[in-house]
């Protein structure tokens, strides 16, 4: 029997806000334990929550980016449970009225090869709701310590439909979602800092069966690659269980990305165990059309729309677009260069290859780069107008990346203009022919390629400054063709 996998993801993403969800204490990472706390975070008697409007703005923006419908009223519920990471014994969350409903994440599956765009698919979302993050338990050998710095940080939970069919699709989903949220300024989505966390729900069913199988939830998947590996592992495990006559039990399993093994954590509680009820301390908030429109105006172009535009309008190769587009600042930089008059293909090449290489070597971010769009636009112009050759331009690029000087200044100062001095060229060519008699004979015998050795020698003699078109003409003339 053949089985197919069914996967639904629950993705928790911390919103980038200055303060916490229901109090003015700062939200942050990496501070000394229990310093980002106050009576609201610690749930001291009498403390009352006050909504951080910015958190609501951010989740509405996330919903608009993903094409969700935004609920007209945002209401709050208590999710009751006892665990030391939550001092209130409940979490403020949204139960039956999530702020965002529907929407999709557009994904790209791996293409037939690196330089070919893969198939695109829209994965439907069930809902996105807002809740507060919980504290963190640090387990020692004999005891556990709790840190409430994270408690109360605004957190959204994005729940997908059970519509993914493979570990690769889940990988593509998280990759695209992360780009969209980072580009929208919703979150930095750093999984190492816990800003983005994913639970994967996995079941299998015989191919052709409509009814869903029993799901297993995988937790603690703290990188996108671990999500992919964990899902692939779980699918294999379930198929093996079923094929050996067993049945899948609904449970939560812990996947260890380092060892590639999983173990059962607990069998899943039912939703009604949480005794949800509306939070009497918080008033519902009406989100009218004008509010939505204000936020809609701040939604950036979706990265895949931008990629399609780069392919169609600038005729860039797919590989260049897939370097530029995932990084909003880099794509903006490219478009700024084109606006300054640079040919798009040339600008794309310089930015995706040389600029990134130099930034990487110097360990500098784009924001601190000495090479600005104006530098690249000027360099492209120098090459296209024949003032310098492409190989000299490569050297100029390295110099300007280090000094920040404009390319025209570097070319003038170092005398790098291509030589159109025919007297000098005639001499270099004559020398090169004398030094390469075999090549000269070869060309006369009809071998076009033999010219390259002579032209190469001329370029070398001129230190790269000879104008290649002129050299070609003069070589042919001297060889009598
Ligand atoms: N049979 C199934 N196989 C695979 N995935 C499923 C199946 N049924 C549901 N799912 C997925 O499981 C996830 C359920 O998430 P949801 O937050 O609604 O409930 P939960 O996991 O029970 O609650 P909690 O937030 O407490 O973990 C969704 O992503 C959904 O698509
Ligand atoms: Mg959930
Ligand atoms: Mg779950």
From TrEMBL:
Keywords annotated in UniProt: ATP-binding, Ligase, Nucleotide-binding, Protein biosynthesis, Transferase
Recorded name of the encoding gene: gatB
Molecular function GO terms recorded: asparaginyl-tRNA synthase (glutamine-hydrolyzing) activity; ATP binding; glutaminyl-tRNA synthase (glutamine-hydrolyzing) activity; transferase activity
GO process terms (BP): glutaminyl-tRNAGln biosynthesis via transamidation; translation
Binding partners and assembly: Heterotrimer of A, B and C subunits.
Domain Asn/Gln amidotransferase: 332-479
Lineage: Bacteria, Pseudomonadati, Verrucomicrobiota, Opitutia, Opitutales
Function: Allows the formation of correctly charged Asn-tRNA(Asn) or Gln-tRNA(Gln) through the transamidation of misacylated Asp-tRNA(Asn) or Glu-tRNA(Gln) in organisms which lack either or both of asparaginyl-tRNA or glutaminyl-tRNA synthetases. The reaction takes place in the presence of glutamine and ATP through an activated phospho-Asp-tRNA(Asn) or phospho-Glu-tRNA(Gln).
UniProt protein name: Aspartyl/glutamyl-tRNA(Asn/Gln) amidotransferase subunit B
Pfam family, any one: GatB_N
Name of the top EC class for this enzyme: ligase
This protein's record includes keyword Nucleotide-binding: yes
Native source species: Lacunisphaera limnophila
């Amino acid at each position: 029997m053949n089985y197919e996998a069914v996967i639904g993801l629950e993705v928790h993403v911390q919103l980038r806000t200055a303060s916490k969800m229901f109090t003015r204490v700062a939200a942050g990472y990496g501070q000394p334990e229990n310093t980002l706390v106050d009576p609201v975070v610690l749930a001291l008697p009498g403390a009352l929550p006050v909504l951080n409007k910015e958190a609501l703005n951010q989740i509405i923006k996330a919903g608009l980016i993903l094409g969700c419908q935004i609920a007209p009223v945002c209401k709050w519920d208590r999710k009751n449970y006892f665990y030391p990471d939550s001092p209130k014994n409940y979490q403020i969350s949204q139960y039956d009225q999530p702020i965002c409903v529907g929407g999709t994440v557009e994904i790209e599956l791996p293409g037939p090869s690196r330089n070919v765009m893969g198939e695109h698919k829209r994965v439907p979302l069930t809902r996105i709701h807002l809740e507060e993050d919980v504290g963190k338990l640090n387990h020692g050998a004999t005891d556990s310590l709790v840190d409430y710095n994270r408690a109360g940080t605004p957190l959204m939970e994005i729940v997908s439909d059970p519509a993914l069919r493979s570990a690769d699709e889940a990988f593509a989903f998280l990759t695209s979602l992360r780009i969209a949220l980072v580009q929208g300024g919703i979150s930095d989505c750093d999984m190492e800092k816990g800003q983005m966390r994913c639970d994967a729900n996995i079941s299998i069913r015989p191919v052709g069966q409509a009814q869903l199988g029993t799901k297993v939830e995988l937790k603690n998947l703290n990188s996108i690659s671990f999500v992919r590996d964990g899902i692939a592992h779980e699918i294999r495990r379930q198929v093996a269980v079923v094929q050996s006559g067993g049945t899948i039990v609904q449970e939560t399993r812990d996947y260890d990305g380092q060892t590639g093994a999983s173990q059962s954590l607990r069998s899943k509680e039912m939703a009604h165990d949480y005794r949800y009820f509306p939070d009497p301390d918080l008033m519902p908030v009406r989100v009218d059309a004008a509010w939505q429109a204000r936020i809609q105006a701040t939604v950036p172009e979706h990265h895949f729309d931008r990629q399609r535009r780069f392919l169609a309008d600038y005729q860039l190769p797919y590989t260049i677009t897939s370097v530029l587009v995932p990084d909003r600042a880099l794509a903006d930089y490219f478009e700024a260069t084109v606006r300054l008059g640079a040919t798009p293909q040339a600008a794309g090449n310089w930015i995706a290859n040389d600029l990134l290489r130099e930034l990487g070597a110097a360990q500098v971010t784009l924001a601190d780069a000495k090479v600005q769009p104006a530098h690249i636009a000027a360099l492209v112009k120098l090459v296209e107008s024949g003032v310098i050759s492409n190989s000299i331009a490569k050297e100029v690029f390295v110099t300007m990346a280090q000094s920040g000087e404009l390319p025209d200044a570097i070319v003038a100062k170092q005398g790098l203009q291509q030589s159109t001095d025919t007297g000098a060229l005639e001499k270099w060519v004559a020398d090169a022919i004398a030094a390469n008699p075999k090549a000269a004979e070869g060309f006369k015998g009809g071998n076009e390629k033999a010219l390259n050795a002579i032209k190469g020698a001329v370029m070398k003699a001129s230190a790269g400054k000879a104008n290649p078109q002129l050299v070609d003409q003069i070589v042919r003339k001297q060889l009598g063709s």
